[in-house]
Design a protein that fits this description.
The structure is a single chain. The protein is mostly beta strands. The protein is built from one helix and twelve strands, in the order E-E-E-E-E-E-E-E-E-E-E-E-H. The strands form three sheets. It has a five-stranded antiparallel beta sheet with strand order 1-9-6-11-4, with no helix packed on it. A five-stranded antiparallel beta sheet has the order 8-7-10-5-12. Strands 2-3 form a two-stranded antiparallel sheet. A hairpin with a 4-residue loop joins strand 7 (64-69) and strand 8 (74-79).
């Protein structure tokens, strides 16, 4: 599995920290930014894979867990630091759950929204890995 935790450069100051994502911090130009918030603790998000799009997830506040599946290996990653992000390449099934109170998940995507890029059925996802 080629997911990667990337440390986001930060500038520390007595007034607080400033995290900066620029240049080659992530390996693609950001074309879409969205965020999840007020997710109930018993709910989950995601439940899909992308054919082409890559995503970089950051827990800006609180914490949540990301379940990742490449069709062969499953892995869980807890995100809970605003200066570390999870790079998810194409072809990885993801589900987000266990959101803490006040959790905010920022997503920096490599492409604009395109429904055709999504694989939303897990069995179809598994079949796509065999092709």
């Amino acid at each position: 599995m080629t997911i990667k935790i990337i440390e986001i450069p930060k500038i520390s100051d007595p007034r607080g920290n400033l995290a900066v994502i620029e240049k080659d911090c992530i390996p693609y130009a950001v074309k879409r930014v969205y965020y999840l918030y007020d997710v109930p603790s018993d709910a989950f998000r995601g439940g899909h894979s992308h054919r082409e799009q890559q995503e970089f997830l950051i827990a800006l506040s609180g914490s949540f867990e990301v379940a990742l599946d490449d069709g062969k290996t499953k892995q869980h990653v807890m995100l809970n630091k605003p200066n570390k992000g999870l790079l998810i390449p194409t072809g990885i099934w993801r589900e987000l759950d266990n959101f803490s109170s006040g959790a905010v998940c920022l997503v920096l995507a490599s492409d604009n929204f395109d429904e055709e890029d999504y694989i939303r059925d897990y069995n179809e996802f598994l079949l796509s890995k065999k092709a």
